[in-house]
Amino acid sequence: MSTATASPTQITPAALADRIVAGERLTLLDVRDDASWTIEAPNVRTHHIPAAEVLADPAIVAAALSGPVIAVCHRGITAERVGGALASAGVDIAVLAGGMRAWIALLRDHVVDLGVPGLEVRQIERPGRGCLSYLVAAGGEAIVVDPAPQIDAYVALAEDLDVRITAVIDTHLHADHLSGARALAQRASARLHLPAAALDRGIAYADDVVPLSDGDTLDIGGVSIIARSLPGHTSDMTGFLIAGRALLGGDSLFVDGIARPDLQQGDPEGAREMARLLHHTLHERVLALGDDIVLLPGHTHPGLHAAAVHATLAEVRAAVPELAIDDPSAFAEEVLADMPPRPANYEAVIAVNAGLHPYDPDLEAGGNSCSTR
After folding, report:
1. Which of 13, 71, 165, 367 could tie 37 with a disulfide, CB 3.0–4.6 Å?
2. Does 114 share its domain with 89?
3. In CATH, what number is assigned to the domain containing residue 177?
4. Phi-psi region of 79 (alpha: psi -120 to 50; beta: other; left: phi over 0)
5. Pick from 73, 102, 131: which residue ends a domain?
6. Which residues pair with 26 in a beta bridge?
7. What is the dihedral of CA 33, 38, 41, 45, to 10 degrees?
8. pLDDT, position 263
């Protein structure tokens, strides 16, 4: 086995994201043994070659690669060895600094224009997990909804907008990703809100939470944000109607799919019951708001977006065939058929978010599947 002394270039997740969004054609060399989840984009061609195989004969691997190459591993350590070997073999290669662990921590924000004077809405995407969170600001105040654990990004965004975070909200007890709500509320000296139904599920830090019930209103700089109970994905799922223009829908309805109903009650009959409840929620509490309401979803597919992910309810109705099913039982059978695997470690993730288990970032390793598709 040859050993290389070349030091490959490092690229940060943010810089890589910028190149992908700009449309640059790149080759991703994933050298992990398990590459079941990786960085996906139309202009990225992926090769999965375990590190041991690359290092056994870098010249052979180098001959199969073309264009700028980005080497990826779990934390960036193994990829650096591989990158050095391939750089010595003449490959134009950079190593993703921090690896996939750093990639899933990347946050990018996008402007959402709802046409309301004085209202600033930012959608914060987490491309490595497909999670979407929000900062809503007016009159020098802001709320943050469903923040990721990387709370520095929200603090920095609030500073850029010259607003003070006064409230932090989780739409429900998340099962697919770790929440940064408690940490951000503490950091910003803000009120921490959870749906009242979430407290019924058992929260270790309930004394620090201001509960929200259906119809409760938050005022942010004169803009009303109304809590709207949306059970089905979970019993505590709660959305927020912003200025009568947009529904921040959490994990109830997405722009091209619907939430899975089998995470809180995983047994077959429990999942069917939740699916029937979700049918009622979608028709009577979401679509009934009107076709012109803008849906701001809590998730999208993992990957990068050049702009905010949103759609009117009319557009969502046309894009999601399950919404045309009138019978709740038929709807339940349809959405539960061929359900993708549950998110990795989802029971432990729920326990962490409820304060019942120590924080462990490795619980987020692996793909994300909070939708029925």
Report:
1. 367
2. no
3. 3.60.15.10
4. alpha
5. 102
6. 44
7. -10
8. 87
Amino acid code (one letter) for 195: P
29 occurs within a structural domain: yes
Same structural domain, 111 and 134 = yes
299 in a structural domain: yes
56, 122: one domain: no
| Residues 84 and 114 occupy one common structural domain | no
Token couple for 327: 């019978």
How far, in Å, CA of 284 to CA of 279, rounded? 8
Dist CA 146 CA 169 (whole Å): 6
| Cα–Cα distance measured from residue 167 to residue 227, given in angstroms and rounded to the nearest whole number | 14
Q: Is 212 exposed, middle or buried (0-12, 13-18, 19+ CB in 10 A)?
A: buried
Rounded CA gap, 4 and 269, in Å?
58
Tokens 């790149």 belong to 26
Within a domain: 129: yes
Q: Is residue 372 part of a domain?
A: no
- Tally of CB atoms within 10 A around 34: 11
Instruction: State residue 371's pLDDT score.
Output: 60
Rounded CA separation 111/308 (Å): 7
Indicate which CATH number applies to the domain containing 86: 3.40.250.10
Provide the number of structural domains found in the chain.
Answer: 2
In contact, 350 and 370? CB cutoff 8 Å: no
The confidence score (pLDDT) of residue 367 equals 58
Q: What is the pTM assigned to this prediction?
A: 0.94
pLDDT in tens, 339-367: 887 776 889 999 999 999 999 988 886 65
Residues in CB range of 165: below 8 A, 6 or more apart: 135, 142, 143, 144, 154, 155, 158, 184, 188, 190
The parts of the chain modelled with pLDDT lower than 70 are: 1-5, 266, 344, 365-373
| 33-69 tens-digit pLDDT | 988 788 989 999 999 999 999 999 999 999 999 889 9
In terms of domains, do 95 and 122 share one? no
Structure tokens at 326: 């009138």
Q: What is the length of the chain? A: 373
